[in-house]
Amino acid sequence: MEQEQILLNLLNIVEDLQKKVLRLERENAALVRGQAQLLEYVQMNQSDAEHFRDNVIFELTDNSEPERTYFFPKIAPGQEAIERIVRDGCSMARFGDGEFSVIAGRIRHRFQTVEDEKLAARLREVLNSDDGRLLIGLANNYGNLDKYTEQAKREIRSYMTPEIRKEHMLLLNTDRQYYDAYVTRPYVMYADNKTDAPAKRFEQLQRIWDKRKCVFVEGSCTGLGVGNDLFDNAQEIRRILGPAQDAFTEYDRLLECCMEQDRDSLFLLALGPAATVLAYDLCKAGYQAVDVGHVDLEYEWFLGGEGRRMAVGDKYNNELPGGQEPLPLDSPEYKSQIIADFS
What angle separates helix 97-104 from helix 273-284, to the nearest 10 degrees? Predict the structure, then answer.
């Protein structure tokens, strides 16, 4: 009996030691994770500081003269773009980091996954267009960033390196009037996204398609307005679908189909860089076309009310991991609106 008690005591000691070892292993793992997170935080702060250092001169000297290598493009507010679209029947082609990357021969967004010299040439053609009916939108990243959230500022500074800025300067015209391409991104980026300002900006956007017969030219998984009321004030909606990625591969067929539509149709385009070219070609042909980009996702995020990007399960989203494989769009109304599918 004494030996059994000794053995039982030994087993208890071993069990206690095992528990202590397990606890120490967990604490050590937590310390390792903490050190890794701290290192990542330090590296991120260092990176942010470097981007701020490179960009701060442009944020502080907006509307004055920086180094001669650079200039500030003249970018009118989004509200002015809306007024010209509604009042004067103008079209709008938008240029952001994705379009400039295509021109430079780089792949930046999943909308365009291959280099395409023809698309790059067409984008340069659009950017140099002198058609007064076509507004050229530029992402307003070049000067003061006070109106944006801290996250948006970090993203812009990270992108607008001195090298990227020089690339843009070589492509842009110092005398041209551009318009703010973020007009169709009224929510997530803005520091006032917890106020009623985004709702007012969306209301202004809705003037563009108010009581208009609209043709949406969009990616197969975009689903403009599906599941929300963003386009409820449109008189009619028809849809032409293109590929969710690399839509320019089907560009000729998409353009031909658009040309078969009524002249009084308003084309709303959400098709990556291909939309920029399509707005230009349709404008030249006498149609009105507006590249609305991410407006539907912005509206979904606005309805979510959290001031950040969120997954939208059945809609293509190139800005969040996993957003490139959305659930199928099963809305019967959506399917009934499709007049052509080149996806």
Answer: 90
Residue 13 CB coordination number (10 Å): 10
Instruction: Tell me the pLDDT tens digit for each residue of 19-69.
Output: 887 787 787 777 677 676 666 655 666 666 666 666 766 676 665 554 557
Angle between helices 197-209 and 78-88 (to 10 degrees): 20
pTM of the model: 0.80
- Residue in 96, 191, 176 with CA at minimum distance from that of residue 141: 96
Q: How far apart are CA 218 and CA 253, in angstroms?
A: 13
Instruction: Select from 51, 57, 87 the least CA-distant residue to 70.
Output: 57
- Cite the DSSP H helix spans in 69-213: 78-88, 97-104, 117-127, 150-159, 162-171, 197-209
DSSP, res 250: G
Rg for the chain, CA atoms, rounded: 26
Separation of first and last alpha carbons in the chain? 81
How far is the C-alpha of 124 from the C-alpha of 239, rounded, in Å? 28
Q: Where is pLDDT greater, at 324 or 274?
A: 274
CB 326 within 8 A of CB 296: no
- The C-alpha angle 184, 189, 191, rounded to 5 degrees, equals 125
* 99 touches 136 (CB < 8 A): no
Residue 177 parent element (H or E)? strand 177-180
Query: Which structure tokens are listed for 128?
Result: 């140099």
